[in-house]
Amino acid sequence: MMSTFSDTGDLETVAFRMSLNPGMQDEYRRRHDAIWPELVSALRDAGVVDYWIFFDADNAALFAYMQRRRDHRLAQLTDAEVMRKWWAHMADLMQTDSACVPLQVPLQPMFHLAPL
Predict the structure, then answer these.
(1) CATH code at 66?
(2) pTM given for the model
């Protein structure tokens, strides 16, 4: 479960960490550079407004930052065929559970400098 922070209006922000397998950062970037249009549509339809993933080379950690609508439907996205295919496509690059879902560690907010 992701921790929610920085609620503003109709949006909420969440952050979480995932783990990339050693040496897989170039392939991870390549696959995301070629993200499937139908996956982008599914994410948008589920309520994702903004989504960033950063890489920490010191420990192969992926830090994800997402803004989503308060009325998001991300839980339903786990049943979408395109999402399951994407997770299977990425499973060889990162730590996942037995269903190929990336393991996620929620991050607790510690500081926020609000926009002006």
Answers:
(1) 3.30.70.100
(2) 0.88
